[in-house]
Amino acid sequence: MINAIPPGLVFIFGAFLIPLFKGRLRQAYVLLLPVLAAYCMISMPEGSGYIINFLGYELVLSRVDKLSMVFGYVFVIAAFIGFMYAIHLKECDQHVAAALYVGSSMGVTFAGDYITLFIFWEIMALSSTYLIWARKTQASHDAGFRYLLVHIFGGLCLLMGIILHVAKTGSITFTSMELSGLGTYLILIGFILNAAVPPFSAWLSDAYPEATITGAIFMSAFTTKTAVYVLIRGFPGTDILIWMGAIMAFYGVIFAVLANDIRRLLAYHIISQVGYMVAGVGMGTALALNGAASHAFAHILYKGLLFMGAGAVLHMTGKSKLTELGGLYKTMPITLTLYMIGGLSISAFPLFSGFVSKSMIVTAAAEEHLTWIWLILSVSSAGTFLHTGLKLPWFTFFGKDSGVRAEEPPVNMLIAMGIGSFLCILIGVYPDSLYTLLPFDATYAPYTPEHIVWTLQILLFTGLGFFLLLKHLGGEPYISMDTDWFYRKGARVFMWFISNPMAQLSTKVNSIVFDIIPSSLIWAAKNPYAVMKIASDMVLLQFTSQEKRVEIERRIKNEKDMYPGTINIYRPVGLTVLLITLFLMAYLLVYYLNSG
Amino acid sequence: MKKEIDIFDKPENIKLLKIVSYVCLAIVVAVDFFIPRDHGHYPWDQIPGFYALFGLIACVLIVVMAKWLGKKWLMKKEDYYD
Q1: A465 vs B56: CB contact, 8 Å cut-off?
Q2: Where are the domains of chain B?
Q3: Closest partner residue to A480 among B38, B42, B75, by Cβ?
Q4: Are residues A418 and A512 in the same domain?
Q5: Is position A430 within any domain?
Q6: What is the pTM of this model?
């Protein structure tokens, strides 16, 4: 048979055909895209394929191995769920953007070289920005611009890093690298910016809650997880990532306490969960890397599910603030149940997906005797349940009845959530379904008695703590500052700087260049000979004796008053010719001396 | 509109839920005295009920720390950036 098209290109080319279809046909078509991509992906042979020659470089569009495949699988599943959740949309613009976004993410995943990777990396940034703008509010418009600018910055860091790295090594092949030299540091910055490692994390918690309800499902899955993939591929065992990841895990949990918007709370927990994966990449053992890959897999499914639950609430009530919600279980019990499956999965309850994936990373930390890391990750686990498993559902679905009454969301949304829930439980109950896909050689058994009991102790007593502190935990109508403060407030300072000191400087430069200099030149050109005489007299004035000063000063005044006067300098043409001849002779002399 | 569910609003159900919850808490601590401890990495793994205390303290720590940071520094009015 003919070579299968790389799955990323299936989505990207497929995206342009979406507007050609209408109604039911379009719905079927967008759901067919992930299926077709999955088929192409599975039929790709192992190793490098789709090699294109470009300016003397070999671009590898499909590098197939177990690492790229495990991300490939979950990406097509997430795409299918995402499209199912969004299928009721009347307009096709978001479908096109989402398909481009999914396709470019898969393009990054299967890219074998830096050039291909960079191209898809940038398409990802642009297409996902549209999913924010498509909300069409002022807030989403602004947040989208900030998101785009931050990602352009990250992309430029990556590009500079790639250029330096390729110039140094002479190879564009994307493989694991040592962190040495400016090039690799810049590449790392590009990667961790997309992984939302603080201080480069604020774009996520700023933009995701402003994205469209359906767009946020895609966004929660792809950007940060392609970043985890490229980190596993490029920087396994890079020590600095261990602490970055641990700090991230805790950082997200702390900020989630302060969040009032339900989707912002979930966004902070993306940062926290990706922190576990980044820490796992930093540890670099087979178990830790498998943990990072499997946690990414599980995370995409349960985080998508949580965002779908929060999106369903927003879709049906038009509200997303904890302070405005409450008591929704009465009319949205199915949404609540499906949401809770995601909540229990992210909290790593036994029989749910997080239990079999997150614990691999935490165990790897213990095995490497990284006690502080182990401690931070374990405390963050408690915080995860506290917010996504308890606080959010309590104040949304229970708590004080807000009086808001909303029906269950459209059936396609429930189906999408149902698929996500099913997979979360499947992985939790039958972990081998995930473990057989893992790329590295390490065995791990999650279901030991002590692991189950100790996990339940942490989680249930966190629950006890929640109810003891319940009255302090409600949402508060505030926003919290994050590192976006630097560019949101910083931009104001910058604009002030531009419109005050810089504007004054510009006026000054303007008047010097376009007014003072030309007018002096014009003045001087009226009688250069007189100008030279004035100038020489002024020089003379500086060096002369006291008694002659008066006389020279009078002469200068006289010359200035006369200026420009009549220009009567008589120089015969002969003198000019003589001068030219002299210069030519000098030139000839120099020429012969040099060549001799 | 179809009939609303209100099982969690009835006092008798809330009371039952509370009892079930406390029993669950008691069970997970009690079981810890009888399980094998082959996979522990740390000395505290040998103390039964350690992780119950760990969970409770972690939860309180996170809330207190975050609220303190929020009140002192991070939390701003919703129109802060406008």
Answers
A1: yes
A2: 7-74
A3: B75
A4: no
A5: yes
A6: 0.88
Shortest CA gap A112–chain B (Å): 39
Among chain B residues, the shortest Cα distance to A398 is held by B8
Looking at the complex, does the CB of residue B1 fall below 8 Å from at least one CB of chain A? yes
Residues A384-430: tens digit of each pLDDT: 999 999 999 999 999 888 888 889 999 999 999 999 999 999 999 99
In the numeric block, which tokens belong to residue A531?
A: 């100008």
Range of the domain at A418: 236-480
Q: Are residues A93 and A150 in the same domain?
A: yes
- For an interface test with A, the pick among B5, B31, B56 (most A C-beta atoms closer than 10 Å) comes out as B56
In this structure, the answer to whether residues A261 and A208 fall within a common structural domain is: no
Q: Which pairs count as long-range contacts for A122-126, CB under 8 Å and 24+ apart, including other chains?
A: A122/A155, A123/A12, A124/A222, A124/A223, A124/A226, A125/A151, A125/A152, A125/A154, A125/A155
Q: Is A382 in the same domain as A496? A: no
Poorest-confidence range of A23-37, A83-97, A291-305, A480-494? A480-494
Residue A577 lies in a domain: no
Chain A interface, best mutation among B32, B41, B59, B82, by max A CB count within 10 A: B59
Do A379 and B6 make contact, defined as CB atoms within 8 angstroms? Answer: no
**Residues of B in Cβ contact (< 8 Å) with A468:** 60
Cβ-based contacts of A488 with chain B (< 8 Å): 81
| Chain A residues whose beta carbon lies within 8 Å of the beta carbon of residue B59 | 382-383, 386, 461-462, 464-466, 469
If you search the block for the tokens 């997200």, which residue do you land on? A252
Domain-located, residue A533: no
Mean pLDDT of A457-465: 95
Other CB atoms closer than 10 Å to residue A534's CB: what's the count? 17
Q: For residue range A78-135, list pLDDT tens digits in order.
A: 999 999 999 999 999 999 999 999 999 999 999 999 999 999 999 999 999 999 999 9
CA distance A275 to B54: 21
Among A257, A456, A477, select the one facing B28 at the smallest CB separation. A456
Instruction: Specify if A537 maps to a domain.
Output: no
Q: CA-CA distance, A106 to A36, in Å (whole number)?
A: 13
**A77 and A10, same structural domain?**
yes
CB proximity list for A542: less than 8 A, separation 6 or greater: none
Nearest-angstrom CA–CA distance, A355 and A424 = 10
